[in-house]
Amino acid sequence: MQIYTRTGDHGTTRIIGGKSVYKNSAQVEAYGTVDELNSLLGMLASHPDCWSELQAEIMGIQQLLFDCGNDLATPEHSAKYDYRLSGDHVTWLESRIDEYSPIPPAIESFILPGGSSLAALIHFARTVTRRAERCIVSLQQEQSINMACLKFVNRLSDYFFALARLANHHAGVEDVLYERSGKVFHNDLTKDRIPK
């Protein structure tokens, strides 16, 4: 397969079916951000603290994200191309969330992204997932889409939240709880140490 084609030299690219669209269109932003997320999951799966079962699960999600990108690159009102993601994939993600959520201790506070290095990377994936979701919503406002993609990406951010907590629990590291800035500065910092 030829790596470069020169067909995008004028700021356009071809979606499924051969239609040419601008590279900053809502459609390309949507599947491009999903592709960015997929690359981040490659980093996550290769993290040295990622245990083998989780690695396999993350790589499975990468496959599903590729399907999601395919569906988002499918032209509107096209009966010629079948969507790949379905409600079954959303249900599967929900089952993973339901399994992981009860394992760490319950919390009644917001948490900061962090803890172990693996959990911090998972939180990064969570925030990129949220951005992908916003891009998909923007596309949805312009044309019809496979709604399973939007639901899947919405659940995926919840999955990463549960997974980040599990990763910290697995590593024996406590989640970093959010405290209002005033409380932290007044209780723990002297005036001359407050950042300017």
UniProtKB/TrEMBL annotation:
Catalyses which reaction(s): 2 cob(II)alamin + reduced [electron-transfer flavoprotein] + 2 ATP = 2 adenosylcob(III)alamin + 2 triphosphate + oxidized [electron-transfer flavoprotein] + 3 H(+); 2 cob(II)yrinate a,c diamide + reduced [electron-transfer flavoprotein] + 2 ATP = 2 adenosylcob(III)yrinate a,c-diamide + 2 triphosphate + oxidized [electron-transfer flavoprotein] + 3 H(+)
Record-stated family: Belongs to the Cob(I)alamin adenosyltransferase family.
Enzyme Commission number, as recorded: 2.5.1.17
Residue span, Cobalamin adenosyltransferase-like domain: 3-166
Pathway: Cofactor biosynthesis; adenosylcobalamin biosynthesis; adenosylcobalamin from cob(II)yrinate a,c-diamide: step 2/7
Protein name, UniProt field: Corrinoid adenosyltransferase
Position of the signal peptide: none
Keywords in alphabetical order: ATP-binding, Cobalamin biosynthesis, Nucleotide-binding, Transferase
